[in-house]
Structure formats: C-alpha cells, structure tokens
C-alpha cells in the first residue's frame, strides 16, 4: 500500500524494535557491537559507520525525499562539505549567486586551498546557466528558494540541461523540505538539508542530511560519511525522528502565517519590498531606511532577533551582520543583500500576535502615518 507524505511522517521510526513493540524509536547509545565470529556481523560494527537509531533516521529521510539512500551528518555545513568530497582539483561547480553565507565561506576557502572552482550565476535564468557550462563543469549547486532573497529556480529545467552535459544537480532543500518540494523527483541527483532547521524544528538539535539517487552515489556517500565521521549522536538522531512526525503540521501553520504576514508587510508604508515566493514559512523584507534596522531589532519582544530558522518560534535575522557577513559587501550589494534587508523565519505562534508586534514597531518607524 502507498501512503501519503503526512502518514509517512507520523510513522517515521516506528516498528524498529519488534522484540518489545516499542512505539518510540529506541536510542542506541552503544558505540561498539559484538561480532558473532570472524567475518560475521549483525550489520553494525562501530557507531561511526552505522548506528540503529541513525539508520532509522536515514531511512526516513530517503523515503520522504523519494531517494535511494539517506545520510545523516553532524551539521548542515558538514553535509555540504561531504558533498564536495565528490570532486577534485580543477572541477568547476555552477552555484546560485544568492546563497547561504556559510556555504559561500566554505566554497571560498576550498577554492583557495583545493583548486575547486565555483562559478556564481543567477540560476533562475536558464540561459545564464547554459552560458557558463564548460568542459570542466561537473555540477550545479542550487538553493531554491535562495537564502535570503527567496528566488526560486526551475529545478527540472536545470536538471534537463545538466543531464545533457553529464553534470550532477545538487539542491539545498532546507527552506522547502520534502513537504513542499522533492528535487529528486524533478531530476536532481543529490538533496541536502541543514536538518537543524525545519526537519528539527525546535532549535534544539544540530544536524545535516544528504539524500542520494542511484546506487553509485549511494556507495560513494557510504564511504564519504564513514571516512569523514561527522555524524550526529544517537540522541540527535532520535530528536530528528521525533520532530519529523510533526513536520507537515508545522509547515502548514508556518506557511499560513507567512502568507498573511507577507500581505501585511507589503501594505505597510515602512516597508520598501517583500520577498516571498508564495509558499513556505520564510520571507525577507526591506525597510525604507537602513537606519531603522537597529531600532526595529531592539524593539522585538515576541519575535527573536536570532540567526537560525525553521523552528516553531519566529526569528528575524539581519543577513548583513549575521548569516552573510563573510560575503564581501560589494558582492552582497550586487545581488541585493543590502543593509535594509531582514530575513523572517515565521513560526507557529498566533498570527495576530506576530502582526501586532510588527505593526507597533513599523508604525513608530513610519512616524505614525498608519
């Protein structure tokens, strides 16, 4: 029988302990496992290589993203770094020009130290992607929507182009999650997540995830994950499985709130522009005056001025000094990450309370004209 996504989420990690019938996934803390004899194994040898609690999480991730294998990592950046182990000196990757500052920082470091080449392009423009493909290009690395400008890329169109040139397509699906988007069904080869964000959803676990399509990539990542060893603890894996069960419900409420708040912000005279793709719980907006930013952030009481996203609590982030501080100012300004831009991770609070706080602060900034 084929089940809907919400059912798969609710059942994540269930029936993994048939001996006791435990509904809640057991937390296997053991780092070592007894071998019945030489050349004999239960499937578990050492916890870095495999752990039963982590296996349950990885199976759930693969199922939800409709991939063949899932791999859990100790952070989102560990997952990104693991993906880059596929490539070698001189290889070129086409990358979304507007992307998370931590990814940009890692790419910049690797370009200097390893000789990997990263070509930044507006991947929402298919023709621009085509124009920069060279004989050294090996992959396209996408965020869709991008962080923080919320630009959506046509993943299928990019995947079609990539297949014609024998390129990998890698999609960071952190913002949309498999509830709203499943890139592997659109032609991507690899999906990754900062699982700290929506998959975890409660700002209490640090983790990353990679999901692959095809046996060859699965074999490669099995070696990469085991060799690097940047895996989450059994408790972190259990927390993620627990959180996946409510992912659909959380996304539904966060999206509903984000839509209403995007409409409210768009109509307010203190707001220059709102960047919201129409779905999901993430949006960005620009104030009319950069000098208003410190005042706005200092007056937040319900909404947290914090750097993460995707949790049940609402966060507002200032990319200029937080998530994108390592990107040179000239480059930030060029792509539109200006000093007036704020990123808003909308939580599950009652939307009227969130709107009331925003309206009070924005009315004051606009001089009480509303």
Automatic annotation (TrEMBL):
Obligatory cofactor(s): pyridoxal 5'-phosphate
Top-level taxon in the UniProt lineage: Bacteria
Key words, A-Z: Aminotransferase, Pyridoxal phosphate, Transferase
GO molecular function: transaminase activity
UniProt KW Transferase keyword: yes
InterPro entries according to UniProt: Cys/Met-Metab_PyrdxlP-dep_enz, Cys_met_metab_PP, PyrdxlP-dep_Trfase, PyrdxlP-dep_Trfase_major, PyrdxlP-dep_Trfase_small
Matches recorded under PROSITE patterns: CYS_MET_METAB_PP
One Pfam entry name: Cys_Met_Meta_PP
Record-stated family: Belongs to the trans-sulfuration enzymes family.
Protein name: Aminotransferase class I/II-fold pyridoxal phosphate-dependent enzyme
UniProt organism field: Chryseomicrobium palamuruense
């Amino acid at each position: 029988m084929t089940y809907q996504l919400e059912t798969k989420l609710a059942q994540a990690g269930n029936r993994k302990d048939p001996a006791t019938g435990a509904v809640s996934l057991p937390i296997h803390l053991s780092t070592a496992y007894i071998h019945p004899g030489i050349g004999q194994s239960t499937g578990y040898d050492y916890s870095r290589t495999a752990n039963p609690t982590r296996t349950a999480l990885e199976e759930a991730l693969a199922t939800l993203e409709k991939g063949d294998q899932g791999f859990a990592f100790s952070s989102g950046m560990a997952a990104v770094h693991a993906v880059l182990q596929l490539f070698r000196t001189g290889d070129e990757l086409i990358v979304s020009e507007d992307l998370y500052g931590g990814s940009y920082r890692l790419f910049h470091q690797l370009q200097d130290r390893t000789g990997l080449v990263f070509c930044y392009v507006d991947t929402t423009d298919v023709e621009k992607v085509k124009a920069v493909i060279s004989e050294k290009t090996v992959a396209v690395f996408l965020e869709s929507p991008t962080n923080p400008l919320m630009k959506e890329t046509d993943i299928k169109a990019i995947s079609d182009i990539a297949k014609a040139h024998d390129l990998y397509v890698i999609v960071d699906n952190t913002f949309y999650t498999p509830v709203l988007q499943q890139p592997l069904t659109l032609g991507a080869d690899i999906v990754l997540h900062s699982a700290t964000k929506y998959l975890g959803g409660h700002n209490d676990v640090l983790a990353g995830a990679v999901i692959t399509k095809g046996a060859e990539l699965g074999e490669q990542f099995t070696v990469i994950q085991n060799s690097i060893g940047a895996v989450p603890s059994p408790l972190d894996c259990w927390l993620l499985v627990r959180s996946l069960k409510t992912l659909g419900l959380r996304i539904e409420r966060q999206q509903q709130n984000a839509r209403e708040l995007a409409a409210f912000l768009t109509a307010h005279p203190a707001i220059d522009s709102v960047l919201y793709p129409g779905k999901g719980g993430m949006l960005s907006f620009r104030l009319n005056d950069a000098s208003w930013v410190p005042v706005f952030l200092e007056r937040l009481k319900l909404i947290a001025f914090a750097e993460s996203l995707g949790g049940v609590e609402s966060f507002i982030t200032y990319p200029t000094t937080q998530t994108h501080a390592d990107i040179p100012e000239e480059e930030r300004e060029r792509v539109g990450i200006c000093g007036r831009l704020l990123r808003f991770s909308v939580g599950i609070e009652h939307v009227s309370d969130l709107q009331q706080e925003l309206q009070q602060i924005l009315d004051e900034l606009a001089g009480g004209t509303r």
